[in-house]
Specification:
Helix content: 55-70%
Number of domains: 2
Shape: elongated
Distance between the termini: 85 Å
Order of helices and strands: HHHHEEHEEEEH
Oligomer: single chain
Number of strands: 6
Strand content: 5-15%
Structural class: mainly alpha
Strand order of the largest sheet: 1-2
Radius of gyration: 28 Å
Number of helices: 6
Length: 192
Amino acid sequence: MDNVDEENDRLVHHLHDSAKGAESLKTTKRRLSPETLELIRQPGAARASCNYQLTSELAKLCRAAIKEDLKERRAEVLAEAAEAELGIRNDRRNVANFKTKMTALRRPDGTVTSSRRTMEKLFSATLENVMRELEWEDMGVKVDGRQLHHLRFADDIVLITPSISQAERMLADFDRVCGNVELQMNLKRRCS
């Protein structure tokens, strides 16, 4: 039973220190809810009454409550980061690993929307990510000191290159990256 007491004492001291540190920082949001902080204080009273079984059960409840609070806090931080558009690394990873076909979007109420405007935004965002994936620093034509390798007009992309061999390489690279997100080039499109 002594081992349980030592483990519980370490847990309580660590949690109290963490709670004090969290309270001293006025600018940060609380990681632990007031209910969890109150639950952390309870094992001390149970230990004082020598009720080891209750002490052990309260320690388990404390760990579960802390885990849940930290999970909620982590979700809040991720939501804030997404709102602030700080998930650039994740966006790049997602684009590299895209393997699903998106045929429609779901609204919060579960209904499906496939408005033209929504699809245009999705397509535009996908094209932007595809163009970021390409490593064309040494390709294209230099204009006013900047390397220019493509122009976008709505959903059309014009590749700019000084030679046929470079154009072939750019098309192959573009086709490869588009294939990663399951896009296909339309080489048969005619201007009307």
